[in-house]
């Protein structure tokens, strides 16, 4: 059996072949290993480590969904509450066949909303290398486009991944809580878990240089009021704390909310589904039959992956400062941990 440190180092080295710099973390029971490889790039070049700050992109969505669960548990919001109830009076929210969009729909990508705000898809196709493409997504812009947005499906009927929906959820929850999105996430998630380096702003000055697929430096992304879809920055150390809470949802201040995120699901296929925020899948018996709950993320200069198996207490975190998917090596490491922890016998 290969030891955990060697597995993590092997994956980090493999990822560093196609990424400027990476940090990989793995949890197996009570053991944790974190390894960095490659370079941070930029003015203070060095090997990234557990405290290096990365943009985590769409992994932000699981934080937004957990904030929803926290407010629901506290009685400050309801999963089946209409989105319109949390937005400014007079905001026109699309519906279809008489079915309104609810907070549950936004968190499970079943709202029927398109992937991007109206007009942004065409701009993305015409100018794919535009720096900071979401910077103009203010609340005024987002709410203004809703009236002209048509739903692609009846809310609640089918999965349709939507950055717009996740961003609107973050905006709506912050309004309900009477604060901004970053403060909401800090108060409801980061402070209870001791996560001091996660947020929209880089207070520590440790955000490293991002790079495009050709390893050319690119500017950071700022998602304005669409931040709930992908605006957070974090470290491997903070994400380990976050995932530990996910692996042990029977204790701690966030336990009830974490359980609610997992009790809620929308089935896509017999073997895959979406929870509040998280994607879920059951591997085929030929692959060990294991449970995998996960999300990935990507911005103009960064990529991320977080996946775990609560049944066998195994998890993998991979974050890099290059716009290249980390999914394949990260999933492979997670499967190896699952196998080592007995899933092949289940």
From TrEMBL:
GO terms for cellular component: outer membrane-bounded periplasmic space. The keyword Hydrolase applies. Its EC number is 3.5.2.6. Keywords: Antibiotic resistance, Hydrolase. This is Beta-lactamase. Pfam families: Beta-lactamase. It catalyses: a beta-lactam + H2O = a substituted beta-amino acid. Residues 13-328 form the Beta-lactamase-related domain. One of its GO terms (biological process) is response to antibiotic. It comes from the Bacteria. PROSITE patterns: BETA_LACTAMASE_C. GO terms for molecular function: beta-lactamase activity. Belongs to the class-C beta-lactamase family.
């Amino acid at each position: 059996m290969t030891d955990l440190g060697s597995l993590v180092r092997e994956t980090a080295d493999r990822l560093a072949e196609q990424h400027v710099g990476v940090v990989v973390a793995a949890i197996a029971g009570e053991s944790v290993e974190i390894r960095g490889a490659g370079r941070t790039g930029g003015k203070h070049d060095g090997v990234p480590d557990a405290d290096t700050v990365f943009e985590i992109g769409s992994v932000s969505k699981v934080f937004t969904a957990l904030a929803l669960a926290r407010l629901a548990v506290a009685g400050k919001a309801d999963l089946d509450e209409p989105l319109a109830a949390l937005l400014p009076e007079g905001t026109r929210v699309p519906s279809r066949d008489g079915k309104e969009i609810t907070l549950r729909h936004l968190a499970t990508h079943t709202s029927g909303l398109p992937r991007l705000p109206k007009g942004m898809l065409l701009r993305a196709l015409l100018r794919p290398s535009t720096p900071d493409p979401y910077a103009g997504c203010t609340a005024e812009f987002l709410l203004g486009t809703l009236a002209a947005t048509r739903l692609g499906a009846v809310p609640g009927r089918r999965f349709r991944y939507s950055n717009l929906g996740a961003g609107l959820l973050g905006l709506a929850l912050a309004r309900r809580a009477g604060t901004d999105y970053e403060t909401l996430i800090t108060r409801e998630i980061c402070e209870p878990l001791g996560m001091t380096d996660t947020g929209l702003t880089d207070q520590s000055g440790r955000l490293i240089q991002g790079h495009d697929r050709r390893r050319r430096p690119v500017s950071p992304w700022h998602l304005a009021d669409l931040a709930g879809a992908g605006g957070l920055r974090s470290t491997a150390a903070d994400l380990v704390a976050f995932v530990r809470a996910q692996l042990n949802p029977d204790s701690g201040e966030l336990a009830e909310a974490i359980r609610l995120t997992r009790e809620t699901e929308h089935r896509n296929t017999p073997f895959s589904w979406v929870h509040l925020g998280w994607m879920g899948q059951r591997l085929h018996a030929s692959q060990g039959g294991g449970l995998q709950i996960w999300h990935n993320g990507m911005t103009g200069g960064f990529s991320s992956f977080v996946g775990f198996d609560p049944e066998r207490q195994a998890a993998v975190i991979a974050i890099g400062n290059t716009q290249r998917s980390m999914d394949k090596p990260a999933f492979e490491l997670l499967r190896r941990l699952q196998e080592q922890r007995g899933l092949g016998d289940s």
